[in-house]
Design brief:
2 domains; about 50% helix; globular
Length: about 400
């Protein structure tokens, strides 16, 4: 996008001009149809129409194509008529053609093919989570693996509960599946089940099973099924009000004598620099709008949730993952994770009109400098408990 130098409001002003020009001179009936199309897309983006169009323009041709693909998939899942989908897709292409004609973008939108739409539909769960803080992104698999390696390196293990030889292990919110894959290697006779909204890596160990599901709709397993139930870093996707019931469900599917382990974080760094603190403040504000934990109450209450679920031998540990060069290899991994997570969150903040593209780039650049050369760290709580026999 060609932006006015030094003007952070330029993307929004350009998008508003594009919308005005696109709708100018239309007959009432046609204008009503196009306005309805833009309003529906704006609702999908959870932003006003001009802000939604600005998001479409700012990321470049590839990013815009990805957004439109997700939108078409959403329309399919809402059972919209094919004629409606084609008209709304045509509206977005025409809007971007207007942006091109005005000189605000240097590319035209190419519509996703039917094969690409079908492939995307196959990768999505029956119901997605509306609360998840991090948007879907091709690099999210890499980020989650890097995050896993940093935490494993800090803990010196993949878990802290006093396991013996579990035969059935459940990983709730399994992400890429990497934690479960490593548990397969450690416990060669165990069946490891990973549950998440989206599938992780395509290649999986022989005794690993993926189950697609939404923890907010209840775990799709019978009572007393697993010797070890592990859940990590769902504070970015589970509303505060849902935590007691969720942990109760984890306890329900755990066998008597089995263990439940929770790993969570607050949205706050230890010894942050000013840019990192500002970024985290924006994350907390965004989390609050999604119903997520913005105050650290989940982080501080993990042991209480376990007790409330009727579990015993409750134990809580605190670890700090170093971020940056001062933390050696682990610190470098954590810095990479922080940069990627910050970039994903900034995309959401831009889409909601909370940050301009220029402000987001500046904030990320300053925060990265603090992560790379400061002495920052990120706190993790690990709490585990046993189900009574």
């Amino acid at each position: 996008m060609i932006e006015d130098e030094g003007d952070p409001a330029a993307p929004m002003a350009h998008a508003q001009e594009v919308c005005n020009r696109f709708l100018a001179g239309l007959h009432d009936r046609t204008m009503h149809a196009y306005t309805a199309d833009l309003d529906d897309f704006a609702q999908f983006m959870d932003a006003p129409p001009a802000a939604a169009v600005a998001r479409l323009m700012m990321g470049g041709e590839s990013a815009a194509w990805g957004i439109v693909l997700e939108y078409v998939v959403d329309l399919r899942r809402r059972h919209r008529a094919q004629s409606t989908i084609e008209r709304r897709l045509g509206t977005l292409r025409a809007v971007l053609r207007t942006a091109y004609d005005l000189g605000f973008v240097e590319w035209l939108l190419h519509a996703p093919s039917e094969d690409e739409i079908s492939a995307a539909l196959e990768q999505l769960p029956a119901r997605d989570s509306k609360h998840y803080l991090f948007p879907r992104h091709p690099s999210e698999v890499d980020r989650l693996d890097i995050q896993h390696y940093a935490l494993r390196g800090t803990l010196g293990a993949n878990y802290l509960a006093p396991l013996e030889e579990p035969q059935r292990i459940l990983d709730v919110g399994c992400g890429t599946g990497q934690w479960g894959f490593e548990m397969c290697r450690q416990f060669a006779s165990a069946l490891v089940v990973g549950l998440d909204l989206l599938t992780g890596k395509a290649e999986q160990p022989a005794h690993y099973r993926f189950v697609r599901g939404n923890v907010l709709q209840g775990l799709p397993f019978a009572d007393d099924q697993f010797d070890f139930v592990h859940q990590r870093l769902l504070v970015s996707g589970v509303p505060v009000s849902s935590w007691p019931a969720l942990v109760g469900d984890l306890a329900r599917v755990t066998r008597p004598g089995g263990w439940v382990e929770l790993v969570e974080v607050p949205f706050g760094f230890e010894r942050p620099g000013p840019a990192a603190e500002r970024l985290m403040g924006l994350v907390r504000e965004l989390s609050a709008t999604l119903g997520l934990d913005a105050t650290g109450v989940v982080y501080g209450s993990l042991h209480e949730y376990l007790r409330g679920a009727g579990l015993v031998n409750v134990t809580r540990h605190h670890v700090s993952v170093p971020i940056g060069q001062w933390g050696g290899e682990i610190g470098s991994l954590a810095a990479t994770d922080s940069r990627a997570a910050g970039a994903r969150v900034c995309e959401v903040l831009q889409a909601r009109g909370r940050l301009s593209a220029e402000d987001a780039q500046s904030l990320l650049r300053e925060a990265q400098e603090e992560w790379d050369h400061g002495h920052m760290s990120y706190p993790f709580a690990v709490a585990f408990a046993r189900k009574p026999r």
